[in-house]
Amino acid sequence: MSTSRKLSPLEQKIHQAALTSGERTLTSKALATLVPDVNERKIALNFLLGAGLLKPLENAGGKLSFRGVVKGELEMKKDLSAEENLVLNLIAAAGNEGIWTKHLKDKSELHQAIIDKCLKLLTQKQLVKVLKGSVQQRNRRIYMLFHLEPSAEMTGGPWYTDKELDTEFIKLLSQACLKFIADRV
């Protein structure tokens, strides 16, 4: 999927808004604010979706949003096979929670050898990164899009350092809280 013509100023405006927003996503509401005219919005959106510069996403509440795709990312994806695209889309759908290889196999219904081959290629192209487990599941290899940061549920947030409970930090924080409370009383 590549653009057969240059983007119009309106299409550039929408694409740029998606790329510069949080997590490169643009909500339907933000899009309506950006382009009030329904017809113009529909034409620009259809072209951007067809060119692969926007990807539709459905939020947990069933609301539609769009993720901006960088042209470089589009170039990297153009040579992917159907299986590789399927695996990449499943990983993208997992967001910053990542996805385990077993879940990839269950959702894609592909053979493990094919999934492994796809993951190796996607990792080499730096479209996907592998994380060595999470706080809850240390032995699992979790895959997520290369540009995303893992969620606090995966890393443990501020309470964990290198997937280990940071007892020293917790002890220091407890002492600071006790001192603060004692000074107030």
From TrEMBL:
Name of the protein: RNA polymerase Rpc34
Species in which this protein is naturally found: Irpex rosettiformis
